[in-house]
Each structure stands twice: as C-alpha cells, then as structure tokens.
Amino acid sequence: MERLRLTKDRLKQELSQCDLKPGDSVLMHSGLKALGWVEGGADSVIDVLLELLGPQGTLMVPAFSYCYAGRPGTVPFDPKTTPGSRNGAIADRLRQRTGAVRSAHPSHSFAAIGKNAHFLCDHHPIEHAVSDPSPLTQLLALHGKVLFLGCGTQSNVMLHLAEALADFRYDHLPFRPIWGEEYLIASPDGPIRRPVREHPGCDNHFPMVAELLLQEKKGSCHPVGMSEAFVFSAEDILDKGLFLLKQKPDIFLCHDPSCEACGPRREYLKSCGAISEVSAE
Length: 281
Ligand SMILES: [Zn+2]
What we know:
Low-confidence stretches: none
Number of domains: 1
Bound molecules: zinc ion
C-alpha cells in the first residue's frame, strides 16, 4: 500500500480535531511510521503538538531505557546520554530536543518540553518507577491527558500505576527475570547498582481500558494520517484500571506462553488468595 504523504498543515488540521487544548499537560505514546510519510518527520509532529498546547502547555513522552544490570547490552544509566529503547521515533526526538527535561529513573524515565516539564520530571526517585512520586502522579496532579498517536492503546503506562496502587500488588515480581533485580547507574565514581523496587510489566491486556472508556464516551478517537489519535484523561485511565483490578486482580495478566511476567504473577495472586485456582482468560 502506498504511504500517505502527510504535510505539516494537514497534520496540524487533523491534530487540532483531537481533544487537546492550550495549557494541557499531555503524556504521549506514539508511533511515527503508522501515520504515513510525515513532512519534516518526528520534529513536525512535536512542533504541531507544542503549537496546539501553547506556551502554558507541556508535552511529555516515555524515555524508558530499561537499564537493568542483567539486561544484555545495558549501559549504566545517565539521563543526559542514555538512549531510550522502544519508545518510538517521536519520543526519541523529543528527548533529544533543546529544552527537553528528562527524569532520572534508570528504567522508566520520562522526557518533557513545556511549562510544567520540570514539575513533571524533576522528582523521580529510583524506588518509584511509576508510583508516587513519579512523573505519572505529577501528571495526575495537573489533571493531565494521555494521547496515543499512531500506536494503538496498548503502551498505556498509566495502567502500570494502577497495578502499583492495586489491593493485590504484584509488581515486586520481575517483568523479565533474566534482567535481574538491580539497576545499573552511571556515577562520577563509576557504575553503581541499586535494587529494583517496582517492575512495570506486561501490557498485552491494556487495550481493553481504552475500549471501555470510549464506550463510556470518556475519551476520543480521531483519524490522523493513516492512523488515529486517542485522547483520554489520565485520571479516567487510572480510575478504570483500579476499578477493573478491584473486580479481578489478574485482569491485566495475559496467557501468552512467551510472556515471562504474567505466569509467576498469577501464581503469586493465587498464593495470596486474591484469585482462585481456575482463572478464566
Ligand atoms: Zn503477559
């Protein structure tokens, strides 16, 4: 299929249809390729969004780097230099732009540009990948929004915060055991290791939350290029995640045999009595 040529003007026109207002603080998950051929590439997408959000607005993206000591190829985390991993071309570009602020978390850092960039990213203790205090809880304090652009809604990191706040919390168990239980962090005296307290895990089941919110008219979906943009309030995502976890503590655990995280987490929930032996898909 021929890829659509998306000019900056058209990108702006389409993104202006989304529920994004001047002054908003927005966490964006994104994919560039799915939009088509974008004139000016990732920078155009960032420029257009920053224009829409205006001087009082803030755009934040994941800059996750997964600097676990046991992960092959891991370099000691330095927020100034460590590249992101699997966050997409737009997020990677934002992290590297002049004026971007990056939080100092070795696995789950965020980068932001705009009025509240420092408020969102300045305080991100190693012990809190997602839980309070973190850029996600700061986003909630600002009544922020979550934008999914060209990437579906699976990479919904706000739901890892819901998992961390759930009655039956399982994120002390590793996402990938081979990555180990320590971070590797750069320091003037050489690499140091610090224990991992929170392991945000599998997101295979996360799309259900966006689907439920759209059914309830809490959120919007608009076409952008060859893909679409979804916008939700961060609070609505968190509330729906917590509601679902309360009803079914293993709601977000998948049955994919290749998933290293969900099986042990389900066994743990059984051992706590949170779920019964037989748990339906
Ligand atoms: Zn899984």
